[in-house]
C-alpha cells in the first residue's frame, strides 16, 4: 500500500460541529491489499462517517451487514463504526478516503453508491483539501467548507447525469422536508446545507420545477398552512404567527396580505 497524501486531525472529534473533517488520504494498493478497520479508534465513534471514492481500478468495503464493491468512478458514504475491512479487487486500486463527523441525518446518503467520472476539476478540489489539511491543519472551517463544496459538486454532477429525473426526485424530497418543517423557521441556507447543495443550485432546482424561488415556495406553504389554521381553529393571529415562526404578528400579517390581498383577520371574517 502506498499513501500519497494524508492528514489527520483527531481533535476535531470534540469540536461539536457537523461535517468537520477528521482526516483524508489518497491510497494506491495492489491486489494483496486488505485493511482491518475494526482496530481503529474511529470505529468506536457513532457520529463518524467515511466518504470513499475510487479513482483507478476497483476495490470493496466490508460492513457488518453487507459488502460494497467500489468500481472505477464510484463513491459511497458509510458509517465508520459499520466498516470491518477494506480490500483491493484488482492489481491497482487508487482511492480517496475522508473521515468526517455528521450530526445530521447522514443516513440519507449512507450506503448509496453513485457513479461519476473522476474529473480534473474534482482532482483540483481534492488536492486543495489535502494540501490545506497537511500544511494548515488549524484551518478547520476552511477544510470543512471545501469538503461541503466537494460533496455538492459530486451530487450536482449526479443530478445532471440524468437531469430531468434527478432534479424532480430531489425537488420532491426537498419539498417533503419543507412540509415536515413548516412549523420551524426555515431558511434557504439551512435547506441547501442539509441537501449538500449551494443556495444557487437550490434556487435553480426550484425555478426549473415550479418557476419560483425556494424562499417564495416556503412563504407560499406557510401562507397555505396559515389559511388552514384560520379556517379550522380559533387560534389568534398572534398565536398562528408564533406557531409558524414568523418574527412577529406584524410580519405574518404583512406576508399574508401580500399573498392573499387581505389581512389574516379579514380572511377569517370571510369564512
Q: Care to give the gist of this entry?
A:
With 271 residues, the protein is α+β, with helices and mostly antiparallel strands. It has 9 helices and 10 strands.
Describe this structure in words.
This protein is of the alpha+beta class. The protein contains 9 helices and 10 strands. Strands 1-2-9-4-7-10 form a 6-stranded antiparallel sheet, covered by helices on one side. α1 (120-135) runs antiparallel to α2 (140-161). The radius of gyration is 23 Å and the shape is elongated. It starts with a strand and ends with a helix.
- Strand arrangement, major sheet: 1-2-9-4-7-10
Number of helices: 9
Structural class: alpha+beta
Average pLDDT level: 86
Query: pLDDT under 50 segments (min length 5)?
Result: none
Write the layout of secondary structure elements.
Blueprint (H helix, E strand, L loop, with lengths): L1 E7 L12 E9 L4 E3 L11 E9 L2 E5 L3 E4 L3 E6 L3 E6 L4 E9 L12 E2 L4 H16 L4 H22 L1 H18 L7 H7 L4 H12 L3 H19 L4 H7 L5 H12 L3 H7 L1
Antiparallel strand pairs: 1-2, 2-9, 3-8, 4-7, 4-9, 5-6, 5-8, 7-10
Helix pairs in contact: 1-2, 2-3, 3-5, 6-8, 6-9, 7-8
Amino acid at each position: 500500500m502506498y499513501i500519497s497524501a494524508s492528514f489527520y486531525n483527531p481533535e476535531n472529534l470534540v469540536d461539536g460541529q457537523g461535517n468537520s473533517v477528521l482526516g483524508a488520504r489518497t491510497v494506491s494498493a495492489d491486489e494483496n491489499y486488505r485493511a482491518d478497520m475494526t482496530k481503529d479508534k474511529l470505529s468506536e465513534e457513532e457520529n463518524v462517517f467515511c466518504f470513499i471514492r475510487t479513482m483507478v481500478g476497483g476495490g470493496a468495503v466490508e460492513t457488518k451487514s453487507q459488502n460494497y464493491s467500489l468500481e472505477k468512478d464510484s463513491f459511497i458514504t458509510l458509517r465508520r463504526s459499520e466498516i470491518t475491512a477494506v480490500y483491493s479487487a484488482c492489481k491497482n486500486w487508487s482511492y480517496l478516503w475522508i473521515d468526517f463527523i455528521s450530526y445530521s441525518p447522514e443516513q440519507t446518503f449512507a450506503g448509496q453508491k453513485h457513479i461519476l467520472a473522476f474529473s480534473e476539476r474534482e482532482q483540483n478540489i481534492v488536492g486543495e483539501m489535502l494540501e490545506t489539511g497537511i500544511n494548515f491543519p488549524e484551518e478547520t472551517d476552511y477544510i470543512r467548507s471545501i469538503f461541503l463544496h466537494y460533496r455538492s459538486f459530486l451530487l450536482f454532477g449526479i443530478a445532471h447525469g440524468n437531469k430531468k429525473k434527478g432534479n424532480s426526485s430531489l425537488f420532491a424530497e426537498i419539498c417533503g422536508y419543507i412540509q415536515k418543517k413548516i412549523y420551524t423557521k426555515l431558511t434557504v441556507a439551512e435547506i441547501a446545507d442539509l441537501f449538500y447543495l449551494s443556495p444557487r443550485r437550490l434556487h435553480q432546482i426550484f425555478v426549473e420545477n415550479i418557476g419560483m424561488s425556494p424562499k417564495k415556495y416556503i412563504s407560499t406553504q406557510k401562507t397555505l398552512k396559515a389559511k388552514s389554521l384560520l379556517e379550522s381553529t380559533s387560534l389568534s393571529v398572534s398565536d398562528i404567527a408564533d406557531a409558524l415562526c414568523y418574527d412577529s404578528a406584524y410580519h405574518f400579517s404583512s406576508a399574508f396580505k401580500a399573498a392573499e390581498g387581505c389581512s389574516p383577520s379579514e380572511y377569517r371574517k370571510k369564512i
